[in-house]
Amino acid sequence: MTDLNHFAPSGRITFKRKPQRGTYDRDAIYAILDEAFLCHVGFVREKAPFVIPMAYARIGDMLYLHGSHASRLADEARTCQEICVTVTLLDGLVLARSALHHSMNYRSVMIVGPCSLVKENEEKLLAMGSLVEHILPGRTADCRPPDDSEIRRTAIISLPIHEASAKIRSGPPEDAEKDLDLPFWAGVVPLSFVPGMPVPDKTDDNMPERSALYVQTLKERSKVR
């Protein structure tokens, strides 16, 4: 019986080290994907590994990547090659009494699977809009939509989210008991993503209200963490 709330662990996403930090929970994985802005896409081309930072968006169980038809990744997508997408949110620096036990608090996701080029204009437009909305919700109402030429020139790559896992570390350092009495400070330095004051271009300094409200929401969210 299929568990719709969890991804089935395959050999490629099974946790080998510190499995207690791992999860296949769909909601946990999607929460990380929806909060982060940047992913890294790994693939092998002509026996050489490549890892590319990219913008992305999620619609249901599909991840969309934005690129150029001339890119290496688009070439991989034309033949439905396997890729690996990772996303990481950094939440803190973990400072231990022992140099060996220094670490970081983080939330990360890994997705593997065959990618493909989106060919239907309707799906491309939906994905392109979602990529903008992922950057800033409501932004599609405050910018010009892509024209036919831009749609043709843009490569949208899709990756079904079928094999996915998340790994999460939180909490204090894990010092050995023998080190607890050492005269060194230990603890966590929290980190968060905090947007700065929006900087207008030279032609318009009136930021739309919905955009300004979202920037404020990001600031408030960073205070909670």
UniProtKB/TrEMBL annotation:
<dbReference type="InterPro" id="IPR012349">
    <property type="entry name" value="Split_barrel_FMN-bd"/>
</dbReference>
<protein>
    <submittedName>
        <fullName>Flavinnucleotide binding protein-like protein</fullName>
    </submittedName>
</protein>
<dbReference type="Pfam" id="PF12900">
    <property type="entry name" value="Pyridox_ox_2"/>
</dbReference>
<dbReference type="InterPro" id="IPR024747">
    <property type="entry name" value="Pyridox_Oxase-rel"/>
</dbReference>
